[in-house]
Hints:
This protein is α/β, with parallel strands linked by helices. It has 18 helices and 15 strands. The chain is 41% helix and 15% strand. The longest helix has 24 residues, at 171-194.
Amino acid sequence: xxxxxxxxxxxxxxxxxxxxxxxxxxxxxxxxxxxxxxxxxxxxxxxxxxxxxxxxxxxxxxxxxxxxxxxxxxxxxxxxxxxxxxxxxxxxxxxxxxxxxxxxxxxxxxxxxxxxxxxxxxxxxxxxxxxxxxxxxxxxxxxxxxxxxxxxxxxxxxxxxxxxxxxxxxxxxxxxxxxxxxxxxxxxxxxxxxxxxxxxxxxxxxxxxxxxxxxxxxxxxxxxxxxxxxxxxxxxxxxxxxxxxxxxxxxxxxxxxxxxxxxxxxxxxxxxxxxxxxxxxxxxxxxxxxxxxxxxxxxxxxxxxxxxxxxxxxxxxxxxxxxxxxxxxxxxxxxxxxxxxxxxxxxxxxxxxxxxxxxxxxxxxxxxxxxxxxxxxxxxxxxxxxxxxxxxxxxxxxxxxxxxxxxxxxxxxxxxxxxxxxxxxx
Length: 426
């Protein structure tokens, strides 16, 4: 692996994490130039084995672990814990997503490791936080979506089994990964000024809450309608209502939502488009593009309590929907652009790899994996003019760097051979 470049070049990270949040956070650090050593069990972390296209390799794993080195250790073995303890003084950052009891049992808890490196930055990522009744519970993105209200807010529902469906992308995981990288950068800045290390705590629950903005906010002066809706939901719960009934009561769009022509998706003759207009000036541009005088929810005189007015407004919306279906996506995008309406086609992710806009802004990187060969994937999340970010290589095959890393911790060749024979390293 070439010498890394970027704003975090020279920073060393020891990663004890798997699945998405921790690995994505550490991949962001690697893109910034940090040297990231990913500690995996001898069989590899779980995401390597999920939908494998070849032994020990999956697209999920490769998309979340580029630019890292792989150290395969049987952490339950005291000799493996000794390797970690000899490495930690060389590290700047440790990232972990184990339960507290597991970290302590493996000798990689914060108290143990900061005794070895007082200036250590230790990121402790959990599902629900280290305190409270759920502190010891494991959790994944789907659970965080459920308990945070994010899943219900999204409102996808499967009528076949009467249950809600998660958001297709594990947003709590990915948002937490960004929080991990953000927290590390802030902690490094603090240490640069003071010399002081610290623990950084991130949680899937907090990330899922943060993504909902005003939904998780109490403001008595503005919440009369919200309070009425939630009182209805509470009454239904008390009466033993099904989830579908609860969801229907919670997801009621109300009269204003049913006459929305400004911030929504429209079906065209050959696909669909999305428009986003959130100001009076943009509302006027939408009406210009649609060639309509219908104001929709922008009409200050609209009486949502009048059934006749509501029905008339909904009928106008249906007429406009039929009008939009009369032209192609390309025709509507051209029209919206001419009128200055923020818009875009609704596409599938797999269609974007060759998109001109992405390539023009270097959003896609080309890599060559040791085993799988050429690949393209989404590149760094941001760019910096003085210290450019870059993908520092593809994801590592399992244990590729074990010998070199253990050797760097002071072990000789005979010791390394004995550790491998004993199953401590792989």
